[in-house]
Amino acid sequence: MTTRRLSGKTCWVVSDGKAGVETQCLAIAEELDLRVSVKRVAPRRPWRWLAPYGSPDPRVAIGHANSEFAPPWPDVIVSGGRMTVPVVRALRRAAGRSTYVVFLQDPRVRNDVADLIWVPEHDRRRGPDVFTTLTTPHRLTLEALARRRAQLPEFMAGDTGPRLTVLVGGNSRSHTFTDADVTRFMAALESLATHFAALYVTASRRTPPALAQQISQFMHGRNGMLWDGTGANPLHDFLAHADHLFVTSDSANMVCEACITGKPVHLFHPSGGSAKFDRLHSALEEFGAVRTLPTPVDGLEHWHYTPLSATEVIADEIERRWERVVTARAHSAPR
User: Fold this and answer.
1) DSSP H or E run through 164
2) Among 23, 173, 185, 207, which residue has the fewest nearby CB atoms (within 10 Å)?
3) How much helix, strand and coil, in percent to the nearest 5, is found in the chain?
4) Residue range 2-28, pLDDT digits in tens
5) pLDDT (tens digit, 9 = 90+) per residue, 193-234?
6) How many CB atoms lie within 10 A of CB 16?
């Protein structure tokens, strides 16, 4: 890991417990080499309904001696998620100039909730305290990817490549896998599979049962692995040793993780979508990282691009801005 100016400083990751955003917060804190404490908030009604506006749930008891949100204040707070906004706002007032606050994703309130707000480029939010990157942060860095590539895991020892990694999402607020989508996906997977010696597949809790069952039947007796959710998650090895990737487009984080590899990412689009997803996919295609997989698949395309790793870029920006803010605060402090 790069030697960081913030290395060893204390950090609270303030989370609403949702895995996607909490993982992004942890990725940034780990890249900065901070000493992390995770603090989760679960506001009751009506404070839950009011978030991101209003005050935090009183039981959070910010600043009280028996609260987990009490001094000594951390050097850095990294947070994300609408439910955390009232708590982060109150913490910033209580901690004052001693704590640098980073918020990931759009807080849906004024920019002064944090010293720095990060959003992906496909989000419309902008401002002097807003920083954007094309892809989202995650816990697989370029350095970690290189380490994994240097050693083949035992479960891949018997295959000779080339390898196809398949990342399967599922139904969400913006996407739905219809019966026709399941049929299209399986046809594309069968066609792609003819070009590879081994397939490494991971599905999601959101994957429709009908699709999960067909994938399981398809993988029976084939070289590779279908991760069933038990044991250590092999995702990072799947990414590190992929020659090509086949990814469903319903998860921005999943697509962005695939793009750290520098290897061809073939996208499958289920029904639905949104303008934000369209902007992300278009930007990644323009960059040269992804292409929509044609149906039926006619041959296998190869392409190359510079691996996209937002985590390091965001951490660099936090350090640059933190140093400026700390210097300015020191100069303005009473003497």
Assistant:
1) strand 163-167
2) 173
3) 40, 20, 45
4) 689 999 999 999 999 998 899 999 999
5) 999 999 999 999 999 999 999 999 999 999 999 998 888 999
6) 20
